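Why does residue order matter? Because the sequence determines the fold. Keep that principle in mind as you read this record.
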Amino acid sequence: MVSSALAEESLARRPTTDGLFGPATTATVWLLVKEPGIVAGLPLVAAVFAALDPAVVVDAAVADGDRVDTVPMEIARITGPARAILRGERTALNLLGGCPASRR
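Structure:
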């Protein structure tokens, strides 16, 4: 699932990523939820970034299946090479948002 989602997204790869960020540039992003619901798909998020670059670390603040009622809430922090994070962010968010349990 992750490899096919990444392949699909690579067709629309943003050429500015490599132009704006060098290979040594690192970044930290926070994954926030804006609506109450059940967290579902964090392992998919981690798998996306592991497939792109094993140096990306996904540190989950909640577990899959946890209910989030207080929003906005940080559910994960992602740290690593900026290029890998930017290449994977859309795929990761699409997979996370597409999990049926997240809409309950």
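The first helix runs from residue 2 to 10.
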